[in-house]
Amino acid sequence: MLDRIKHLIKAPRISQLNRRYKQELDRQYVSYDSWIRQKELEYLAGTLPNTNDVQVIEYCDVMKEKPAADVVLYTLDRHKLSMRALHAVISVFNEYPETMVVYGDEDEYNSNRTIRMNPIYRPDWSPDTLRNYFYMGNVVALKKDIIPTDAADIYELVIKATEGMNSAQVRHVDYVLYHNDYSKSLYVNDGRFDYINDDLGMVSIVIPSKDNPDILKQLLVSMVKLTTGVPFEIIVIDNGSNDENKIKIKSVIDETNGKNEYLKDAKYIYEPQEFNFSRICNRGVASANGRFVLLLNDDMEIRDSKWLLKMTKYASREHVGAVGAKLYYPDSKMIQHCGITNLRLGPVHKLQYKPDDHIYYDHVNDIDRNVLGVTGACLMMRKELYDSIGGLDEEFKVAFNDVDLCYSLYEAGYHNVVVNSTHLWHYESLSRGDDESKEKLNRLKGERIRLYEKHPDLYGKDPYYHDYLTSDILDSNYTYAYEYEYENSSLTKVSKPKKIGYTIKPEWENQCLIISLEQCGSLEYWLGPREAGVGDGSTIYIGGYSFVAGSDNACFDFKILLKGQSGIYELECNKLYRPDLEINLDTDENAVLCGFSLKPDTKAMPDGDYQVGVIARGLASRLVLCRFTNRYINIKNN
Q: Residues 596, 519: contact at Cβ < 8 Å?
């Protein structure tokens, strides 16, 4: 009876809070249709280029109609070309004289062709993706001089025309060139243009391992049992196992020899030293005799007999740099890795923790494709190329050494590839643990800073990930930037810290309060070396989200807490639209407005390190929840 009375008393307040929540949600919502039309106005602002010398040929007429104009635009259906498609294409040819091929983006119309929706944003030039999928879609324009005369269809025409071209010759334009009525993929996994396996040569598999004999044995047993098609050697490099494990590891390796017709040798290098993943791998590669080297974690399990063959097929190509494989979490088809994407947040694994049971955005999980980076947990390349690029940078002792290598390869003109047509199981972090302590987080931050000091042109940029896709949040999905329009808007709150006059009670600590800090540090760190301005090094920026799991978050007020030696400070927190939370959580939780983006006004706060946390107070109850993260900000006013 008492619970019923309490519910009746709170019901009007809960209803009021939910109405206010929905009003704010409507205010922050941005439609794709209005957003893209504004983008297009900005893109083609000014005088439009002359398009008189452009010939339009439909895909069905590739072999019927001869190229006559200087530029030929091929399309599936000329009636579905966007209004300014020709202007957008010609603007690229005019701006970049070396351009030979141009393609762009597309979207769909609703049933009555009034609202645009479901955009597909293409990557920049991706020659290996093209071999597996005609990713350029329904519009592609070529200079007449490079158009072959013996192509059976548009796919073969583009494959032949672009053979050996670089990213300066094949350009993607950030403009919607085509309005489809429905999604339709062209020539996916057609198979006609697969690379042919020649006599590839031996692969040297370098496996760093310390004090993990059982894990290593699991890998070697699966490798010896399944691997076919390519000769290989195994090099286990140990940086200091104890005496007992050293004997076990040597025994495991000795048992491996002679168990596979393709295995030429298995050897063990024992050199005690402090952990430096880059140095350990470089030492292993120095002992390699193969044409290819494969860096492989010991916490792997082979699942496909042709895994090595599929990877060497790409690694043998002169234009290819690093090659990786799709990785699953053990005993599952849950994705751990299918390529590294470079966001403003830094390098991330898109689709991590997603089930690999359907096709995701533009076939990113089901075809072999070009990516900016692959994980060093499974990374293959030609040994000659590894040596010429300098191997792994030993200044990156733990993190980002693989990313740095891949970025260097890209900057040298190579394309990296993830082979989604094979997979391994990865028992992630069994060897080294996670990175959640304060010390490890600080080390990770320092290595990230160094990564972009080496590669400033790649800060927040990824040629294989469109600028119109979300870059500022920790979202494993492929979501659109327009859904998070607040990221660069006036909705970022300037909040003045207020020293609290209450005590944080132990009973407030609750694991149901979820906190994700996607940025926590200086604005300079967030903006990057090219965009940062004077004073951005001392300006603090905090962004992310927090919600109470299993509760109606419209009925909570969230504030950021900063805890330092001088006390605890509270900051007003805005409520920002996070559609990724709506996808991942129960809609009854009303968590879609649980994002925050704020700049604390820290001028009146004492200098020092402050631990970041969140406090959530019930607006229709007396419930209070509080948690502190392992993330810190440093305030330095003087």
A: no
